[in-house]
Amino acid sequence: MRAYRAEEIELAGDGTGQPARAIEVEQSLERLGWLLDDFFRIPGLGWRIGLDALVGLIPGVGDTATTLASLYVLTSAVRYRVPKVTLLRMGLNLGIDYAVGSLPLVGDLFDAWWKSNQKNIELLRQRATVSANEAREGKISDWLFVGLIILLLVGLAVGAALVSIFLLMLMAGQISRLIGG
Question: Could you list the residue range(s) of the whole structural domain that residue 131 is in?
Answer without folding.
Answer: 6-180
